[in-house]
Amino acid sequence: MRFPPATALTAHPAPDGRGLRESGERRSVNRRLLLVLLAALLLRMASLPMNEFERVALPGLAGVVALVVAALHSRRVPVRTLHLTTLLGCWVYLLSHLWFVLFRVPEPLQLATLAGVGPWVPVLLAAHLWMLGRQGSLPLNVVGLGASAALLSVFVAGPAGALASPVTGALTQMLLASLVLLGGQHSAVVRTLGLMRRDLLGDGLPDGRDALTGLPDRFSVQDALAREFRRRPEGLGVAVIELDQLPALQAQRGQGFTERLIAHVARVTLGALRDEDLLGRLNPDQLVVVLRAPDARAARAACERLRVRVASRPLEGVNPTVSIGLAFQDLHGDATELLRDAQDTLRGLEDGRNRVVVGGVGALDGAGQPLLA
Fold first, then answer.
1. CA dist 39 to 32, 33, 36, 54, Å?
2. Parallel, antiparallel or unpaired: strands 278-283 and 286-292
3. What is the CB neighbour count within 10 angstroms for residue 37?
4. Which of these three, 173, 201, 229, is where a domain ends?
């Protein structure tokens, strides 16, 4: 049976709408958070007494936050630039406030005044990671902690400073707590990245799992297929799924992209299967599904839906397509023959890709309901 030809892999040079939508959502979240910060600053200025420093600095900081909120409405300014602007504005405020506490506030009032600003230093250090990531936050961490430590050193070395004074002890504890916080954040991020890398690349996976997709490998699929064939061969089908034009894509986009594409197609396929179906990786460019169906027609309908589902899930501007060779148990003598028939059917495809081809005797006899939603 012949099916109408369809386009295989199509690359779209323009960015997909999902990336633009995510960028817009990110700006919206940042805008809401900064509006909360701006409201808190305005409430602070309106309801609580301010010293001579705060009467000048708080309106300035509120102005910076308001400008960033306004800039978030325009896509011309990168979000990262706005994050840096916000963080630098907060650091200027905090360091200036620390300077004011250490060198302008009378000693009996220093500790009480520091209590209002000191806890925000660790919070600001933590915000570096939230906004800039692990690598991008490191320079600002060094600058912020270094400047705070420099102010404390100048205070201790000055004529009014004392190593045993309460404000020196409080600032020292604040800096030590900040270091512990940064170390804990770094450790948590490294651990999280390691877990993600293990899940994506397969490090530490049990034997019999493919390293890229985490799916059962060829030998595990063959063993499972043999067990199912011995248990009940009736209604058993094997579908070999091959990504179309994979060598051309690898030459055009690189091996890293094709590996992401294979993992993407594996996730899409897995999401369409029933719990009792088995998906595995047969070869570098092939997946395999072991399924049960009332007859070959129902199995083919299921594979057609799989093919359409994959084609409707683009990755990085590329619409992947697959060709599927299906073998349904009819006169096959064993599981090995069933799998080989599915592979031979796929290899014999001569009239275009992006289609389902059924092999075996009596492949489309009978009728039944499709397997997959």
1. 11, 10, 5, 16
2. antiparallel
3. 16
4. 201
pLDDT tens string 57-81: 989 999 999 999 898 888 788 888 8
Over the chain, what is the mean pLDDT? 76
Q: What is the pLDDT of residues 87-109, one digit of tens each?
A: 898 899 989 988 998 888 888 88
Candidates 322, 363, 330, 326; CA nearest to 344 is 326
CB 225 within 8 A of CB 238: yes
User: Can you give the residue range of the structural domain that contains 170?
Assistant: 17-201
165 and 103 together in one domain: yes
Q: Measured at the alpha carbon of residue 249, what is the angle toward residues 244 and 251, in degrees to the nearest 5?
A: 135
Q: Evaluate whether residue 236 is within a structural domain.
A: yes
Question: How confident is the model over 327-337, as pLDDT tens digits?
Answer: 887 666 677 77
Tokens of 369: 């309901």
Q: Is 121 exposed, middle or buried (0-12, 13-18, 19+ CB in 10 A)?
A: buried
